[in-house]
């Protein structure tokens, strides 16, 4: 049965993107982790990433890591564990990113109670101002605590960039992380397995040969799944056409482009504004703002104009289209990162894996 709206997911493209990135990273001494959150950790997507040569799967949400359990890959929890979930973190994640002493203590207790060892990467904030201690002394002290606690093992130092503050990964800030990592190693007499410098946003630096030697992990999501990195720019050697949204036309009518006697607010409490293009042929599609931010949709047929929408309808101007559309035809859209995220999350959008 055909089921719309649907998001088409090209698994072989994800595998190929992954393979390309694993190879590119290997040339720079980097072993990437594969981040599945954009695809809500669909096991098929996890498998596509593993097939491309990655062995460590990472996700922000514990519920997503649970979904990946049957794949039997190594797992990394990207978002700091909540105190309320430490038992499950120890159960379902091999490694977690951390920045709080009480959380480390709780993880330690949970690990001991479960007779497990849990690995932690301590996060340091290099100015992007999301997670991690901002002061080096704070991070050094947390690392000392991590080595002291039973049941947990300090295995790395990491930082996150280009997420909240839009701070770019640079040779300078990566060197700062590296120097701090060496200091942690020296102070505690240990070797850190992971120096985790950035997300896909760090690939450009790496490919320009400007990532300092010693940074040995990048956490890659957008680049594997969508072929994009810093500023959503395409990453060399990857494809950007993994995901496409397909919606079905349920009405085609010729109508004026300005509503008749418009005075009230629209369904979202806004005063709508209209461009008068005269009488136009319009198509209604069965998808709406409840599923995706319609301004983030890019019609593959570039003669289509997105006019607007409501919770459950998308209104298109198809007057200029050379392609013939009829009731039951489908319209394809390319998607931004945010739009893929929404479509993957919406239970109303069928996940069509190819
Ligand atoms: C989402 C996330 C990533 C992956 O980012 P991409 O831009 O998708 O590569 C890496 N690290 C952390 C901590 C994240 O939350």
Automatic annotation (TrEMBL):
Pfam family for this entry, one: Ala_racemase_N
Database matches in InterPro entries: Ala_racemase, Ala_racemase_N, PLP-binding_barrel
Sorted UniProt keywords: Isomerase, Pyridoxal phosphate
Membrane-spanning intervals of the chain: none
Ranges where the Alanine racemase N-terminal domain occurs: 9-226
Cofactor(s) recorded in Swiss-Prot or TrEMBL: pyridoxal 5'-phosphate
GO molecular-function terms, A-Z: alanine racemase activity; pyridoxal phosphate binding
Highest rank taxon of the organism: Bacteria
GO cellular component terms, semicolon-separated: cytosol
Protein known as: Alanine racemase
Organism of origin: Photobacterium ganghwense
Lineage: Bacteria, Pseudomonadati, Pseudomonadota, Gammaproteobacteria, Vibrionales
